[in-house]
Write a structure and sequence with these properties.
This is Nucleoside-diphosphate-sugar epimerase. The protein is 40% helix and 18% strand. It contains ten helices and eleven strands. The strands form three sheets. It has a seven-stranded parallel sheet, with helices on both faces. A two-stranded parallel ribbon has the order 7-11. Helix 4 links the parallel strand 5 and strand 6.
Length: 262
């Protein structure tokens, strides 16, 4: 058993990591920008801010491991790049905790600003001098559903031609990260993808069939290097599919989907 700090511990992934670590018997503390209620009763909440460094020293003091889940696509430079650097500096000052960092499949092949920031954060962890593990995964089921619902709300649905997704169960990723804490530093783990690969256009059409909406679907070729990388499958991990809930099982678990299907 160890004392583990989870950054972003009240977020979609972080709160599941907290539960998985607590179930494994670890003492868990959460780094959060506000004094939010923890996902498990015994978890301690440390109010801290990666953007400024406020509270980081107190949060990391006495920890054996840090699971770094905090991220912000809107402020990726401040949070993912500079914030990770501040976290690692505080960790070095506090000892040599094992840093487990979760990242995204394809960030070195898809040239977006956010992905460049994620890659910079990875490199900071690798070069930190601390024991480390990095796990890249494909996008989570809820994120893909959110994108689909935005698309299907449009009067005419433009779908990027040739794009595919391999979404993954958030709970499965949380279990893998908790397992990485127990296993100890392992460097970069094999990239992890969801159990199935779907074309975006098929998911859009399937989503429309599950709702009263009737919308024309128009496949379009999106220009640019990032779009080309996605057409080439840079976001996919077909060689290492995960377990956990499939896309259909995820949809069926949602009350709103069950009502629509009746």
């Amino acid at each position: 058993m160890t004392s583990v700090l989870v950054t972003g511990g009240t977020g979609q992934l972080g709160r599941r990591v907290v539960r998985a670590l607590a179930a494994d018997g670890h003492t868990v503390r959460i780094l959060s920008r506000s004094a939010a209620a923890p996902p498990v009763p015994d978890a301690g909440v440390f109010v801290a801010d990666l953007r400024t460094g406020f509270g980081l020293a107190e949060a990391v003091a006495g920890t054996s491991a840090i699971v770094h889940c905090a991220t912000d696509p809107r402020r990726s430079r401040a949070v993912d790049v500079e914030g990770t650097a501040r976290l690692l500096e505080a960790a070095r000052d506090a000892g040599r905790p094992h840093v487990v960092h979760v990242s995204i499949a394809g960030i070195d092949r898809i040239p977006t600003e956010y992905y460049r920031s994620k890659q910079a954060a990875e490199q900071a962890v690798i070069r930190s001098g601390l024991p480390w593990t990095v796990l890249r995964t494909t996008q989570f089921h809820p994120f893909v559903l959110q994108l689909l619902d935005r698309l299907t709300a449009l009067p005419v649905i433009p779908v990027p031609r040739g794009w595919r997704v391999q979404s993954i169960d958030v709970d499965e990723v949380a279990r893998r990260l908790a397992g990485a804490v127990a296993s100890g530093p392992a460097g970069r783990l094999p990239d992890l993808g969801g159990p199935e690969v779907f074309s975006v256009v098929d998911l859009v059409r399937d989503r429309l069939r599950g709702t009263p909406r009737r919308r024309p679907v128009l496949e379009v070729t999106v220009p640019g290097a990032s779009a080309a990388a996605l057409r080439a499958g840079a976001n996919l991990v077909p060689g290492n599919p995960a377990g956990g809930r499939t896309w259909r099982e995820f949809l069926d678990s949602r009350p709103s989907h069950r009502l629509q299907a009746r």
